[in-house]
Amino acid sequence: MSNPTSTNEGASPAPQNQQPSAQPEAGPSEPRHVNGQTNGTDGDVTMNGEQAPSPDKAEEQAPDLSSIFAARREEEMARKDRSLAEFLVMLDNYKPLIPDEVTEYYLQKSGFDCSDPRLKRLLSLSAQKFISDLSRDAFHFAKLRVNGTAAGRGRPVAQDRNKVVLTMDDLSLALGEHGVNAKKPDYYL
What GO terms fall under cellular component here (predicted)? Predict the structure, then answer.
């Protein structure tokens, strides 16, 4: 009877704890085998099943990315132009709180000459928003001042909370937040 582990009767059986040799050394022109995957000599690297392009191939993809970004920028600019055009059309029918005559007077006084009424209304609307923001901030500072000093004076707090008086100090603090210096000098000469 023959031994099932040996193929030749005269050859000695191969030891079982010996592992087959690792993959043969790859030369410079042969592809390398890493984790069962073949990497060519073109410089691509395969890690975790994903192949990263070589620097030469990355440069080929760069124009694609720049064209994508350029297309997105153009779409964004077109959207902004459409929204500006729609806003200017809306200004045709808008009547701001500051009358057009007052806006025109102050624009002429400052040297601004424009015949487009929509632009004048836009400037009037921006002035209205600026005044609204200032008054809201000044009211906030006045409430902080009233709530902070009411408890220390010995008066009932409920009486003073209903009465908020806007002072020049509150307004100058609000103007200071918007970059306008409206404080009086400390000394008059």
Answer: SAGA complex; transcription factor TFIID complex
CA atoms within 13 A of residue 46's CA, in its CB half-sphere: 13
Tell me the CA distances in angstroms from 44 to 29, 35, 52, 57, one per residue in order. 14, 15, 6, 9
Q: Can you tell me the distance from the alpha carbon of 101 to that of 107, in angstroms, rounded to the nearest whole number? A: 10
Question: Where are the chain's structural domains?
Answer: 94-177
Q: Are 142 and 136 in contact (CB under 8 A)?
A: no
Per-residue tens of pLDDT for the chain, all 189 residues: 445 554 445 444 555 555 555 555 544 555 555 555 555 555 556 666 666 655 555 555 556 788 888 889 999 999 988 888 888 888 888 888 999 899 999 999 999 998 888 889 999 999 999 999 999 999 999 988 888 765 555 555 555 557 788 888 899 989 989 888 887 777 776
Contact 150, 157 (CB under 8 A): yes
The 8-class DSSP code of residue 65 comes to H
Distance CA 162, CA 160 (A): 5
For residue 120, the tally of other CB atoms under 10 A from its CB is: 20
> Rounded to 5 degrees, what angle do the CA atoms 73, 77, 80 make?
140
